[in-house]
Structures are given as structure tokens and as C-alpha cells.
Design goal:
The protein has 135 residues and is an all-alpha fold. It has helices spanning 4-20, 22-56, 62-79, 83-93, 95-114. The N and C termini lie far apart (41 Å).
């Protein structure tokens, strides 16, 4: 996957440059990166504020932590020149499209925790009010 995305990006950039010209293609890449980074900055600030609010009320900031990671990945994608990486970056930075991705990640992690064998046999899950000590 890490090799396929840059190859597709290069191919698309070449094809788009052939159709509309090199200057237009370079302008689109620069403009999308600039707009994307403004969105990353805005969403990152908002997510940090929500995270701090959750910490003050002693609530679990799970959603904000996942959002923060997705926003960082979006920033990296948006800084990488290319149309595919820009699309991935915009999908990850915009809240309406980031929300289902966050839900998918949370569901997958919860299934991994419930099926503790995916972490190995030395991991024990301690539920509230219950403690198991095994040596």
C-alpha cells in the first residue's frame, strides 16, 4: 500500500498535467495543500480543546485521541504532493468523513481487546471492581 499510493499519485499527476498543463496541475497541488493545512490547523485546535475539556471533566478522551491521530495523518497526506494523497487527507480531516473512520477504528480496537488472544496470553483485562492477579 505504501508503494502503490505514490505510484498512482505520480501516474495521475502526469496524466492531469498532460490534459490541463503543468502550471495548472502544480497550482492545484499547491492550493489543495494550503487549504488542507488550514483545515488541519483548525480541526487540530478544535480537537485539542475538546480533549482538554474531557480531561477536565474526567471523561475518557478516546474520540479526541483517535481524531488527533487521524488529523496528523491527514496533515502528512496533504503535505505530500499528489491527488490521491490529497483526497485521503481531506477525507481524514473533515469531521463528517472522519467520524465513520473513527467508529471503525474504535470497533476494531474493542474487538481486539475483547478477543485478548490477539494481544497474546500475557494481557489481562481488568474490569471495574474486578481484579485478577496471576503469576
Amino acid at each position: 500500500m505504501l508503494l502503490l499510493v505514490p505510484l498512482v499519485d505520480i501516474f495521475l499527476l502526469i496524466r492531469v498535467a498532460e490534459m490541463v498543463g503543468l502550471l495548472v496541475t502544480a497550482s492545484v497541488v499547491i492550493i489543495t495543500a494550503f487549504i488542507g493545512l488550514l483545515l488541519v490547523r483548525s480541526e487540530g485546535t478544535y480537537t485539542i480543546q475538546k480533549l482538554l475539556g474531557k480531561l477536565e471533566t474526567r471523561e475518557s478522551p478516546t474520540d479526541q485521541i483517535i481524531d488527533g491521530i487521524l488529523i496528523i495523518v491527514a496533515g502528512v497526506c496533504l503535505l505530500t504532493p499528489g491527488l490521491v494523497t490529497d483526497l485521503i487527507g481531506f477525507i481524514l480531516v473533515l469531521p463528517p468523513t472522519r467520524y465513520p473512520i473513527r467508529l471503525g477504528i474504535k470497533g476494531r480496537v474493542e474487538r481486539m481487546v475483547q478477543n485478548k488472544s490477539s494481544f497474546g496470553d500475557n494481557i489481562y483485562i481488568i474490569k471495574k471492581g474486578e481484579r485478577k492477579d496471576q503469576y
